[in-house]
User: Fold this.
Amino acid sequence: MKTQFSRKRNSLIGNSWIGPASLSVVGIALLFLILRTVAPGAIAALSTPFWKTGSALSANVHTAGTFFGNAAHLAKERDRLLAENATLRTEQIGLQAKVQDLTKLVGSRTEFADEILATVLVRPPVSPYDTFVLDQGSNAGVAPSMRVLGPSGVPLGTVESVTKNSSRVLLYSAPGRETASWVGEERLALILVGRGSGAFTATAAREAGVIEGDFVYIGGASFAPVGVVISVANDPSSPRSEIGIRPYLNPFSTTWVTIQP
Amino acid sequence: MIRGVALVLSVLSLFIFPHSVSAVLILASALLLPFSGLALGLIAEALYFSPGAHFLPVWALFGALATSAALLVHRFVKTRIIE
Assistant:
């Protein structure tokens, strides 16, 4: 039996992998790692144009997709949103009046902190560790451990590291991250455990009365919820319930945030 | 040529595509150029690793695994025409 090697295929998966090309690729990777260690700001500066291009492409793909949408369906959705907007505006006027009345009665002990507005350069699912990279750093006053809030003040995470012109934010939903919180109108204390991609889980006593639709809050300057209970799993053999929580704000589509001390 | 295209696409995917797509492209790239798996894993860590997010550099390990798997494939699997 005669054996013949295919030249054509071997040129694709051959043994020329340990040549200058491989060495260059590994060299560039090591250069990136050294840069990250020695000058972390340089990595963000080098990557920013690519991240911005990626964000722009994602936005354009989404816009192009709406071209194929059903016009009647879109018109119906628009009408529904207009009606919802009008209701919310009325509700907001009522709440503002209530806040003013209460402030007159009891005074205000809350001093609004200075906030820093930042653009999200990269977010999940492009960023694999449930982190944001923001375009504001120590030059703008950002410091580690500062709180990061999304639109409407929804808590998202905390600043983990800072360079002069960028910062990295670790989201509360990072896998395994534990955060003290409370749930529902009874303000039941919970430990939220991040599950990645914005999702959380928690456990609570079965008798605690946690139900689907309850809002979950994190202590701090913002009173906006961080998530909504979507499932309460009761195992007959366990005295505790497993609670599934989805994020109130989708981190995949968050384009700007505010940073607070 | 195809190796270069796969490599460039994999590097760009780290900035543009969801990380699951990047993982698939890293695997494909490692199959064509084994050490690119390790290199791309290291680049992903340099771009995104955050000590509080995970205690292990998952992407560097994934890249190393992809490189090992690709090297095994290159070492033991040979394309041939049996007559």
